[in-house]
User: Fold this.
Amino acid sequence: MASTKTTQSFVPVKEVRNGVVVLKNDGYRGILMCSSINFALKGEDEQGAIIGGFQSLLNTLDFTIQIVVHSRKTDIRPYLALLETRMKDQTSELMRLQLREYIAFIRNFIDSSDIMTKMFYVVVPYSAGGGGVGKSTPAFLGGRPVPKDNGGDGFEEHRVQLEQRMSLVVQGLASSGVRAVPLGTEEIIELLYRSFNLSELENPIHLSA
Assistant:
């Protein structure tokens, strides 16, 4: 009789602990949320500085990173509900009419086109065996197994090493004008949940090799 596997058996994440993703193969991942830059609106000198800063970051790193872009439909319902509340509070009939027409316009616009929100993340890896993941492994939250730490789980030591790598990436991104902040435990759990609910995302983060 063939054995059945639960959905969790296909998830490479063992736990999320103190802002760190702990994998079943004992790898560790930190996730940075990054600001965006409207590169096209920058002057030529500014564009050159941004490219130079990013190139310096890549040349500085001795480990691999993953850049993830999440595209998600924007939920406009709270905004429409706010407009409807304000419409009811208006004493001027003209203002109520204008708000009613504006709400109708927004609804029609949303029905005819998808409004997407893009979020940018950098995934930073660390393994107990040193280095990042193997070059043959494109998925960052998977990867090859690493040696186990026989002196306890070694989590705090590995977390410190991972945070040093994340700080290096943050500083490198800052030289390009990109602000990056590490996600906390709850934020990472929410991000992973959305990554497994593909209907909510156009470009989910890859979780397995």
Observations:
- The chain has five helices and six strands.
- Helices lie at 44-60, 77-89, 93-112, 155-174, 185-196.
- The longest helix spans residues 93-112.
- Residues 168 and 206 are 23 Å apart (CA to CA).
